[in-house]
C-alpha cells in the first residue's frame, strides 16, 4: 500500500501540518512519497521521495495548476491513497484531484478503525466509518487528529513540472487583524461559547478568566456575532492554543474548535448538554447552565 | 446573468443524534430541519448580487431531497431568490458527495449559469466536496471558503479564509463557482410581505432519477456515537458543591491553580 502525501506551504514556509500527514501514513501502514509545491530549502525532512515543484513559478495558491502537479506526481508514483490535510488548502485542492481521478474522497478523517476511515457526522456528535469503492482514493485528515511525526530524514528530491496556465489569479494575502491578546502564551484560558446566550453575558465569563489570572477565549459563533474580538478566537481559523488549563464555557465542541484547543494539558467543560462533543476531550465535564455555574466558581477564586 | 444557489436541508445541530436502525446514517425521526447554515450565506450573497444587478440577474435555488426540503426552498425564495428547483430524492442521505455533485452538474450543464453559490460544507456530513466537484464536472473556475465577495465586469473578487486569521484574495472569471464560509455576510430574515410574495414563485419538481448519472464512489460502513475520553469526570448536581469539587480537582491536577 502506498500513500502520496501533499505538503502544505504558505508565505515561503513548509507548514508543520505536513508532518501530520507522515504520522497518518505511518498509522495506515503505508509506504509514503510526498509532493511539495514550495522550495528546496523548505523540503520536508523525511526519508523517501519528495516530488518538488517551485512555488516561485507555480504560485502558493493556484489550485488549477497545483492540481496538475499533484496529478503528475500520482502518474509517477501510482499511489493507493492521495492524502491532504483538511485545511483551507486541502479541502480546496483535494476534490479537484479526486474529480479528475474519478476517485472517492473521504474528508476530515479523525481515525482509522479496523482499516476503515472514521469521520465525524453532525459536528462530531456521531461518527461514521467510510470505505472507498474506487481503486484510488483521496483522503483529507483532520488537523491535529494525528500527532505530527518527527522531522528527521533526508528527502530524495525529484523535480516535477506541469503546464502553468491558470484560470485563477492570486492577488495576495491579507494579514490577520492585529492581536490585542496572544492566547498561545496564556497558561489559563477561559472561553465563551454560544451557550452564554448574548453579548451582555460575556463579562460573566471574562470575570472568571480574570479571577483565575487567565485570558478570555471564544468560539467562532461568538466572534462572528460580534460579542468578542477575533483576536480571542480559538480554533482552526483563530488561534491554536495549548494552555495548562482550558475552560470551555457553553461551547458544544465543533470540530474546528476542538482542533484548536485539544492539546491543552487539562480541559474543563461547562455545558448543559451532557452529550455535547466537548465531553469527548474534557477531563472534567460540569453539567450546568454556564450563567449559573460560572459566577459560583468565580466567587471561589475571589 | 444567471445565478444558481445550491442549498441543503439539515437537522438543527443542537439536537440529540442517534444512528438509524440500518446503522448507516442518523435517525431522522423527531429532528427539526432547517437550511444548512453555510448555505444561508450563499443565498444571501446571491440575493445581494441580484440587488446589485437588478433585473439583469435571475437567481435559481436548488435543493435535493424528500418533500420536506421544499420548506428550505421557500425560505430562500422569501429571502429573494427568483425560482426554485426541487430534485426529488427521498434517499438523498445514501448518496455520496460525488453523486450529489453529479446531480447538480447534470441539472446545470445546459442552463448556462454564470455563477454558482454553495455553502463550503454541510453541517451534517461536512465533506466540503460538493461545490468543488460541481465546478470540476462543469469545467467552471472555483474558489472556496469565501468571507468576502464582489463582482464587477464579469470578474469575481473573492476573499478566502485561511488559517489563523489570514485571508487570501483571488480573482476569477465567470463562469465560476464559489463556496461560502460563515461570516461572509449577514443572512437576512424573510419579511412577511416577502414570504407572501414567495408563495407565488415557481418551484419546479424534477425526479431525482432523471438527473442521477453516476454510481457512488464511497460507502458508509457504519454510524455510531463517539467514544468518550477515558477517565473524564462528570459533575452534576448542586452548583456550590460542584464549584468546590472542581476547585479541588484543579488544585490537585493542574499546576496553575493553587
Automatic annotation (TrEMBL), chain A:
This is Electron transfer flavoprotein, alpha subunit. Residues 3-174 form the Electron transfer flavoprotein alpha/beta-subunit N-terminal domain. SMART domains: ETF. It comes from the Bacteria. PANTHER family: ELECTRON TRANSFER FLAVOPROTEIN ALPHA, ELECTRON TRANSFER FLAVOPROTEIN SUBUNIT ALPHA, MITOCHONDRIAL. The keyword Magnesium does not apply. Belongs to the ETF alpha-subunit/FixB family. Binds 1 FAD per dimer. Keywords: Electron transport, FAD, Flavoprotein, Transport. It holds the Pfam family ETF. Its cofactor is FAD. GO terms for biological process: fatty acid beta-oxidation using acyl-CoA dehydrogenase. GO terms for molecular function: electron transfer activity; flavin adenine dinucleotide binding. FAD binds at residues 194, 219-220, 233-237, 250-257, 271. It comes from Geobacter metallireducens (strain ATCC 53774 / DSM 7210 / GS-15).
Automatic annotation (TrEMBL), chain B:
Keywords: Electron transport, Transport. GO terms for molecular function: electron transfer activity. Residues 23-215 form the Electron transfer flavoprotein alpha/beta-subunit N-terminal domain. InterPro entries: ETF_a/b_N, ETF_b, ETF_beta_N, Rossmann-like_a/b/a_fold. SMART domains: ETF. Belongs to the ETF beta-subunit/FixA family. This is Electron transfer flavoprotein subunit beta. It comes from Geobacter metallireducens (strain ATCC 53774 / DSM 7210 / GS-15).
